[in-house]
Amino acid sequence: MQKPTICMICGAKPANRTCAICGRVVCEDHIDSTGVCTACRRRKSEEFRKDMLK
Ligand SMILES: [Zn+2]
Ligand SMILES: [Zn+2]
User: Fold this and answer.
1) For residues 38 and 51, what is the distance between their CA atoms, to the nearest angstrom?
2) What is the model's pLDDT at position 4?
3) What is the pTM of this model?
4) How many angstroms does the Cα of residue 26 sit away from the middle of ligand 1?
5) Mean pLDDT of 49-54
6) How many of the other CB atoms lie within 10 Å of CB of 36?
7) How far is the CA of 18 from the centre of ligand 1 (A)?
8) Which tens digit of pLDDT belongs to each residue from 1-34?
């Protein structure tokens, strides 16, 4: 019997998407329209902020 894949971010909802950057399987609440999970998106925005401070 196969278990449903659970979102690797919230661990609660069934995952039906895969992040284009880290390959994590996530639910639709934790992926944006570009196919990037919220964890990667947050990291990207932090890098962007550092660039802005230069
Ligand atoms: Zn989730
Ligand atoms: Zn990701």
Assistant:
1) 20
2) 81
3) 0.74
4) 5
5) 74
6) 19
7) 11
8) 677 899 999 999 999 999 999 999 999 999 999 9
pLDDT of the residue at 54: 64
> Which H helix or E strand runs over 25?
strand 25-26
User: What's residue 11's pLDDT?
Assistant: 97
How many CA atoms, within 13 angstroms, populate the side-chain half-sphere of residue 18? 3
Q: Distance between CA 46 and CA 44 in Å, rounded? A: 5
Task: List residues, by chain if needed, whose CB lies under 5 Å from ion ligand 2.
Answer: 19, 21-22, 24, 37, 40
Distance (Å) from CA 25 to ligand 1 centroid? 9
- Domain residue ranges of the chain, discontinuous segments joined by +: 1-54
